[in-house]
Amino acid sequence: MVKDFSWLRAEPHGIYIVPASCWIDPAQPVDSALITHGHADHARGGHGTVMATPATLAIMALRYGDQALARTIEYGERLRLPGGVDATFLPAGHVLGSAQILLEHAGERILVTGDYKRRRDPTCPPFTAVPCDILVTEATFALPVFRHPPVEHEIARLIDARAANPNRCLLLGAYALGKAQRIIAELRLAGYSDPIWLHGALERMCRLYEAFGASLGELRLVSEARKDDLAGQIVLCPPGSLNDRWSRRLPDPLTAMASGWMRVRQRARQRNVELPLIISDHADWDELTGTIDEIDPVETWITHGREDALIRWCALHGRRARALALAGYDDEDD
Questions:
Q1: Strand (E) positions, the chain?
Q2: For residues 55 and 210, is the Cβ–Cβ distance under 8 A?
Q3: Which class is 8-145+282-323 in CATH?
Q4: Is 246 helix (H, G, I), strand (E, B) or coil?
Q5: Spans of all domains in the chain
Q6: Are 151 and 118 in contact (CB under 8 A)?
Q7: Is 143 within 8 Å of 205 (Cβ atoms)?
Q8: So what's the architecture of 151-277 in CATH?
Q9: Which residues contact 98 (CB under 8 A, 6 or more apart)?
Q10: Of the ranges 10-14, 104-108, 308-312, which one carries the lowest mean pLDDT score?
Q11: What is the pLDDT of residues 102-127, one digit of tens each?
Q12: Structure confidence at residue 169 (pLDDT)
C-alpha cells in the first residue's frame, strides 16, 4: 500500500490534521487545537477546544486564564479525533507537561515531537522514542557546533562562581517556564541547600511546578530582601531583567545566563553576560541526529531552526527529509 500522508498538512501558522479539522500548536486562534507544551510560541490563547496534558493546561491557565473548552489528555492516553484519527500524547522531556503527539490514521503513523530534549531533567518525564513513518522534528540547535556539555558541569561552574565571589550577588537569567525550575532542581541535586532568590516574575511558575511535584527547596523573593541579604546569593530573573533598572538594587551582580545559545560568544557579549552557562531544554546536534537514527522514520519533516543543516545530514545518511515552512516560532524558551 502506497502511503502519501496527505492527511497532515503544514501551513504557515501550524500543522493541520485534515480529517479531524484540528491543528497542532497553531499560531492563531482556531476552533480545535492540540498543544504540545506551554511556551508562548506553541501555546496561545483564544482557541475553541484545547487538548493538552494537565500541566500544559495549568500553564496556559496561568498565562492566559482558563480555557473555555479544555480537555485533559494524560501521557499514553489515546484520543479519538474526528475523521478516524487517533492521537496519543507522549513525554517530550522539554518542560513540565511537554508532549509529543503520535497521530495514527489509515495505517500511517506520524510523530509530531514539538520541542524536546534527550537529557535527564528532574522536573519532567523523559522523552519517549516510538516508531513512526514520519518524524516531525525541531531543529533549534541543528548545527554540529551545538554539542551541549553535561548539565552537572555547568551547575558546578555556577556553584564555584558563587563561592569565589562571596561579596557579589550571582544574578542568573533563566526563562520563566522550564529553565528556571530545572536550574533550581539541578542545584538541589548538586547539594545546594541555601535559599534561592527569585525575581517576582518567576514565582508563580515555580509554585505551579511545585504543585505538580517538583522539589525546589526554599525560594525567596528579592522584593522581600535587604540589599545586604543578597551578597553571595544566587538570584534568578528573566533574561530581560539582567541589565535593567531592577538589577541595580543588587549588590555588585555577577551576571550569568543559562541557554543553549551561550555556546555562541557573541550572544553572551550582547547581553553583558560574565558567566555563560550552556544549559538547554532542546536537543543538541548529536541528540537530533541520534533521535532520527533511533526512530528510523521513512521520512523526516524538519521545522523551526537550522533546517538546511539537518536536511543535509539526512541526505548524507541516505534519509529522506524536507523542511516545513511554519511561521511564528522562536527561541523564547532557550
A1: 8-11, 14-17, 22-24, 32-34, 49-52, 69-72, 78-81, 85-91, 99-105, 108-112, 134-139, 170-173, 196-198, 219-221, 234-237, 254-258, 275-277, 299-305, 320-323
A2: no
A3: alpha beta
A4: helix
A5: 8-145+282-323, 151-277
A6: no
A7: no
A8: 3-Layer(aba) Sandwich (3.40)
A9: 36, 37, 38, 53, 56, 91, 92, 114, 115, 116, 124
A10: 10-14
A11: 999 999 999 999 999 999 999 999 99
A12: 95
Residue type, 332: E
| Sign for the pseudo-dihedral over CA of 216, 220, 223, 228 | negative
* 20/35 Cα distance (integer angstroms): 15
The CA distance from 261 to 267, in Å, is 7
Query: Whole-model pTM above 0.85?
Result: yes
d(CA 90, CA 98): 8
Strand partners, 14: 11
Element containing residue 162 per DSSP (H, E): helix 151-164
